[in-house]
Amino acid sequence: MPKVVSQIPEAKGHWILGHARELRDGLLDTLVALYRTHGPVFQMRAMRRRFVVLAGAEANNFVARHEAETMTTRHHYEWFGRELGSERFLLALSGDDHRVARRILRPGYSKAHITRRLLSLCILAERTLGRFEPGPRRHPLDDVRRIVVDQIGLALGNRPAGEMVHDLERAISTLLRVTVSRSAPRALLWSPRFLLARARMRNLVRTAIAEHGSGPPTDRPRDHIDDLLAARTPDGEPLDPAFLEASAHGPFVAGLDTVASTLAIALFTLARDRALRTALEAEADALFADGPPTAAAMRKARLLHAALMETLRLYPVTPVVVRTTTCPIEFEGHRIPAGQDLLVAHCVPHKLAEYFPDPEAFVPERFLPPREEHRAQPGIYAPFAVGPHTCLGAGIADVLLLLDAAYILHRFEIAVPPNLTKLELRYDPVAMPRNLRLEIVRERHPPPPFVAAGAPEATA
Q1: Residue 206: predicted pLDDT
Q2: Which helix (H) or strand (E) holds 175?
Q3: Which residues of the chain have pLDDT under 50?
Q4: Structural domain tally of the chain?
Q5: pLDDT for the residue numbered 61
Q6: Exposure of 278 by Cβ count < 10 A (0-12 exposed, 13-18 middle, 19+ buried)?
Q7: Which site in 61, 92, 252, 411 is 20 to 30 Å from 209, CA atoms measured?
Q8: Is residue 230 part of a domain?
Q9: Between β-strands 41-46 and 71-72, what pairing exists: parallel, antiparallel or unpaired?
Q10: For residue 223, what are the domain limits?
């Protein structure tokens, strides 16, 4: 057992900013470099906020084992939850409270809510893609946000919400920047644009809950809000209305920027390699060749799935999580006191050559047999975080990413402008591609007949 020492190495940064600028413009690469210099435990500062960073595979395994009894998220997400209607928002809970809430909410994040509506999800994607014409798409992130918001709204609340994408993005992004990353002034919470966007978001959720209140569905598939209304506490009581409303926002919080940003970044990574794109187009065409897509058919798109996993390795949109210690902990020979803010850099192993050879290269085959590099050791591949707070919607994200990427590749030949050689990301708090541009070269196929025919629930 390593000897416990009191002094934790400190990563020196700018005398005023600390590492704030580097974390904003190169979060993962900065933490990888500091890990190589200081090891798996070090201190750093971003403006006035100080963190102890836990990084590397050992840190991931430590957090997975000990987070529940030694760490809390309350200080970082309670304010965010309160703005959504309840301080007991899932992200703000820890320990037994978190376990109970996660068990209650898990059915609503089931893959079944997505996979039973694959046809409708394609129809919703076509509502946006049908407007595309050959030429540059200067704001592809906006395009995929609209697709994802429509799909999440339908599958989890029976209300396609693409028309509200800008309100949802403004409300959620502002809340995250003010209350979680603390990178924006709280005065933004009183700005007319934010207040209007938040009011519209709340009205969307409240209307959906009211529409679901008449009982179990008989004319549509069951969804997330149905599960919330049917859920019971350990005492057998219905969910508190404030907790229910805050939880109904959860899929939009989880998917709006995380799934949309990952999809936009994935299109960049898939389009810039012509040979890879050709192979992926063949998989995508096969998925839509014999009628509406099915879960079984999607499982056959192995190279596309591997390419999306590689995208999440190189460009994870949430490569760190914040925690606070609730008691003293010891890790790698260092004692960390209670009340210490932690930055758990769970994606640092993604860029370490000892786990992923040539880590800066985009190589989907590393996730396929016989290589399967991500299985070589626990804790080295963690795009959806680690421990009790691992993303509850990871399964839904997997389905949406694969379905939407396949549908776009089936419909269009896409390319990356020749002068775009490196993707620039800004983290605030999730990764946003700053310079992403795509080009629609041509339409490869018209909308499949089963998509062109439409579906009542997707066009309501």
Answers
A1: 92
A2: helix 165-175
A3: 1, 459-460
A4: 1
A5: 97
A6: exposed
A7: 92
A8: yes
A9: unpaired
A10: 94-320+355-459
Given a contact cutoff of 8 angstroms between Cβ atoms, the answer to whether 255 and 148 are in contact is: yes
For residue 183, give both structure tokens.
Answer: 């990178």
Is residue 265 a part of any domain in this protein? yes
The model's pTM: 0.94
pLDDT of amino acid 56: 96
- As given in the structure block, the two tokens for residue 45 are 């500062």
The owner of tokens 């998989």 is: 283
Q: How many CB atoms lie within 10 A of CB 259?
A: 27
CB distance 373 to 352 below 8 Å: no
CA pair distance 43, 33, nearest whole angstrom: 14
**What backbone torsions phi and psi does residue 213 show, to the nearest 5 degrees?**
-75, -5
* pLDDT over 70, % of the chain: 97
User: What is the Cα–Cα distance from 412 to 280, expressed in whole angstroms?
Assistant: 12
Biggest CA–CA distance in the chain, Å, is 68
Structural domain includes residue 63: no
SS3 187: helix
CATH number of the domain where residue 363 is located: 1.10.630.10
Name the β-bridge partners of 415. Answer: 439
User: What pLDDT, on the 0 to 100 scale, is given for residue 158?
Assistant: 85
pLDDT given for residue 458 in this prediction: 55
Token pair of 239 as six digits: 């969910």
